[in-house]
């Protein structure tokens, strides 16, 4: 089977010869129940990568903290103090979001932190977003509620619908490309300026650009990171600027939406419906109004799961890059927060 690693560029001429002499100790600090899978696939990928003298552990009693070269990390890890890891070269997050680690005061700014963007996670997000966009586009919920043979008229074609995507990073662009293939009109928004068009997708930025996207979108997809600037971005003010009856899909971060304001807009009919995969507190409490609201579909944070096989290849590729003194993939900008 062809390894995903072969899809990455290599530059053997820039190899750092020192990487052939020092041991590379890798600490797995992810979900304990997934360690056997990660261990198996890491060993395979490391062998294919030709990185020499690598050792993987999930136990710092076996290898001293001061000898650890790389940490594979997830938010459920009990590891919070990175100060003993004095030889640390990089930390590889198993999640696309890094809000659980980026501001940790014990993590030196000199140690690169990377977020997870792997083909499995990307494809999972594409399928989740596309599926729910099509669900709203085709009026599936309305037909489910009708429970009778009744047509509310001809469904518009995709070319007659506008989908706005708030958060136009790696995952936002990937979803936009798929929706464009289905002929939807797609608008992208990010906090910082982007090219005006990306493969037929009109891009906006800043507060004025946000107003434009909100006012034109029939379906609004939210893929925003968790930063102070995006907290409660979807509130009574921004919701009032949306096209009447817009459908919202949030697969980014829960704190980008003010829950009370969204519920009020749903009750008033300003928002036609909402599909929510992420929440301020997870799992979502049993008594939360989202569960019983007739216009809300709750999904349990399943939009973009990290797949072990493809995630491991991205991690090992970044280890190679670090050992060879090359730029890492998907490095987090600590100041921007993502």
Describe this structure in words.
The chain is α/β, with parallel strands linked by helices and 338 residues long. It is built from 8 helices and 13 strands. It has helices at 35-49, 119-137, 140-146, 170-181, 206-216, 236-240, 259-267, 308-323, and strands at 24-29, 54-57, 70-73, 90-93, 113-114, 162-166, 185-190, 197-198, 201-205, 219-222, 246-250, 271-276, 296-298. The strands form 2 sheets. The protein has an 8-stranded mixed beta sheet. A hairpin with a 2-residue loop joins strand 8 (197-198) and strand 9 (201-205). It is elongated and about 70 Å long. The two termini are 33 Å apart. Mean pLDDT is 91; it is low at 1-20.
What descriptive keywords fit this protein?
338 residues; alpha/beta
Q: pLDDT average, as an integer?
A: 91
Strand line-up across the major sheet: 8-9-7-6-10-11-12-13
Structural class: alpha/beta
Main sheet attributes: strand count, strand direction, barrel closure: 8 strands, mixed
Strand content: 15-25%
Oligomeric organization of the protein chains? single chain
Number-wise, the strands total 13
Gyration radius over CA: 22 Å
Pattern of helices and strands: EHEEEEHHEHEEEHEHEHEEH
């Amino acid at each position: 089977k062809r390894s995903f690693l072969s899809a990455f560029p290599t530059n053997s001429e820039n190899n750092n010869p020192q990487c052939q002499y020092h041991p590379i100790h890798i600490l797995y600090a992810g979900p304990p129940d997934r360690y056997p899978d990660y261990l198996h696939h890491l060993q395979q990928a490391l062998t294919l990568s030709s990185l020499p003298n690598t050792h993987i552990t999930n136990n710092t009693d076996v290898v001293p903290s001061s000898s650890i070269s790389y940490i594979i990390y997830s938010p459920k890890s009990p590891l919070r103090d990175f100060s003993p890891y004095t030889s640390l070269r990089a930390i590889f997050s198993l999640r696309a979001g890094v809000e659980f680690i980026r501001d940790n005061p014990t993590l030196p700014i000199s140690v690169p932190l990377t977020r997870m963007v792997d083909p499995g996670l990307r494809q999972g997000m594409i399928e989740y977003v596309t599926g729910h966009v099509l669900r709203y586009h085709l009026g599936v919920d309305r037909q489910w509620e009708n429970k009778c043979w009744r047509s509310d008229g001809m469904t518009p074609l995709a070319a007659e619908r506008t989908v706005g995507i708030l958060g136009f990073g790696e995952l936002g662009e990937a979803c936009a490309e798929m929706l464009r293939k289905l002929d939807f009109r797609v608008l992208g928004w990010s906090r910082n300026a982007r090219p005006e068009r990306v493969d037929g997708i009109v891009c906006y930025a800043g507060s004025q650009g946000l107003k434009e996207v909100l006012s034109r979108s029939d379906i609004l997809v939210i893929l925003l990171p968790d930063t102070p600037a995006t907290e409660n971005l979807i509130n009574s003010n921004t919701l009032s600027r949306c096209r009447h009856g817009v459908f919202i899909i949030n697969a980014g971060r829960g704190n980008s939406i003010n829950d009370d304001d969204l519920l009020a807009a749903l009750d008033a009919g300003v928002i036609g419906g909402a599909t929510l995969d992420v929440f301020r507190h997870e799992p979502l409490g049993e008594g939360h109004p989202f569960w019983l609201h007739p216009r809300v579909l709750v999904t349990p944070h399943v939009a973009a799961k990290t797949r072990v096989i493809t995630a491991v290849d991205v991690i090992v590729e970044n280890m190679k890059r670090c050992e060879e003194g090359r730029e890492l993939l998907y490095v987090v900008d600590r100041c921007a927060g993502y």
